[in-house]
Amino acid sequence: MTIPPDTLTAMLRSMWRIRAFEQMAQVLYKEGLAHGMFWGALHSYEGEEAVAVGVCACLNADDSVLSTHRGHGHALAKGADMRAMMAELLGRETGISRGRGGSMHMFDPRIGLMGGNGIVGAGMPLALGPAFAAQYRGTRAVTACFFGDGAATQGTFHESLNLASLWKLPVVFVCENNLWAATTPICDSWPVPDIAARAASYGAAAATVDGNDVMAVHAAAAEAVDRARAGEGPTLIEAKTYRHCPHCMVIREHRDQAEIAAWKARDPLPRFEAHLEREGIVTRDRMEEIAAQARREAELAAQFARESLMPDAATYAEGVWA
Fold this sequence. Notes:
This protein is α/β, with parallel strands linked by helices. The protein has one domain (about 40-75, about 105-295): 3-Layer(aba) Sandwich (Rossmann fold). It is about 45% helix and about 10% strand. It has helices spanning about 5-35, 50-55, 70-80, 80-90, 125-135, 155-165, 215-230, 255-265, 270-280, 285-305; strands at about 65, 145-150, 170-175, 180, 185, 205-210, 235-240. The strands form 2 sheets. A 5-stranded parallel sheet has the order 1-2-3-7-6, with helices on both faces. A two-stranded antiparallel sheet has the order 4-5. A hairpin with a 2-residue loop joins strand 4 and strand 5 (about 185). The relative contact order is 0.17.
């Protein structure tokens, strides 16, 4: 599949926007610790940008995305407003969930972003909802459901994959295997090297890809989306990647520094940039401009968040289930 140059440039821009957002979010988090204005944990997506962008570049506006506690990248790749997301981190009324959800609950059904979830593995059964609705209505819309390797050990993984396969629902399950479920290495919880191998038990298609290669992710996702739109059922994509930061900022770094350095050497952003420059698709000057624009957008988003008002206490219960 040949990807048009404009699409490749847009994918690079999307990856840089995620990277810039996450780095600025860490600044806000550290400020919040000092001033008591950042509630909850912060699960950074830095290092995993290729997965969200590679998948979401294959989706249409009416397709749905189910996210996770580490979901900023999914939201931005699907088209969420960066200013509203940054304001949500600070619990502001201008936030994407009006300050009610925080970092783990970015939600905007207008763009098909059906929300993140602080419960590990909870997004998978929820993903069957919009997928079944699309099948029932005959819209050809697809649902992409992201989850981590830790969620793949949950019963919801097997239940959801089984039902999706049984009913041939248009779902693309995307396992972001970053090798660590919080502080548990995957070798301590999985007896086989590839999570994608479990799809065979349910008659589902599967692919294991380099999650730090946005082109490889895009190719696997494009095939999975095409299968889903054709009524051929779900696909399980396992994207092997690595988060650059500690699990959630409130847990100290537990991974070996040599392991972290080895994975950072395979950073998806410079890898993609090298490909684009080598193929003559984007010049080095243009790439630096794209990166600078993303950083400036993140700075303005942070300023917007800091200056936004907190919700009125009288309205806190609006939109929240009791």
